[in-house]
Design a protein that fits this description.
7 strands, alpha+beta
Length: 124
C-alpha cells in the first residue's frame, strides 16, 4: 500500500471540487464526475452524495482504481471502502471543516446513504 507525500496530499485535497474518473473492467476510463474531497491528516477521502447507487461509486468499488483530477494534476489512485466508525466520524468532521458553509449539503453527506459510500483514496 502506497501513501501520499505531504505535498501530494495537499495538492489532491486542496481544491473545493475535484473530478473522479473511474475505470471500466477493461481498463478504459469512464466519464469524469465532479465531487468534493477531504483530507484527514495525511489520508484522503471521497464520498458519494448519492450513496452506493451512484454509477461512479459502483465502478470505483468494482475496479478499485481510477484517477483524481485536482488543480490541473491527474493522480492515479486506488479506492478502498471505509467502514471503521472512527474513520467515518473523522471524514464527517473533514467535510464539516472544509465545506461547512454549505451546511445543508454537509448535513446530507453525514446521512447513512452517503456515509456508507465513503472511499479512502491512495496512490496507485
Amino acid at each position: 500500500m502506497s501513501h501520499w507525500t505531504a505535498d501530494q496530499t495537499a495538492a489532491i485535497a486542496a481544491p473545493q471540487e475535484v473530478r473522479v474518473v473511474t475505470r471500466r473492467p477493461d481498463g478504459t476510463l469512464r466519464r469524469p464526475t465532479t465531487i468534493w474531497i477531504v483530507r484527514v491528516g495525511e489520508r484522503v477521502f471521497i464520498r458519494s452524495t448519492n450513496g452506493r447507487g451512484a454509477g461512479w461509486f459502483g465502478a470505483a468499488t468494482a475496479t478499485r482504481n481510477g484517477q483524481i483530477v485536482a488543480g490541473g494534476q491527474t493522480f492515479e489512485v486506488a479506492f478502498s471502502e471505509v467502514t471503521d466508525a472512527e474513520d467515518l466520524a473523522a471524514v464527517d468532521a473533514g467535510y464539516r471543516d472544509k465545506y461547512g458553509h454549505h451546511a445543508s449539503i454537509v448535513d446530507h453527506l453525514e446521512e447513512e446513504g452517503p456515509r456508507s459510500a465513503t472511499l479512502l483514496v491512495e496512490p496507485a
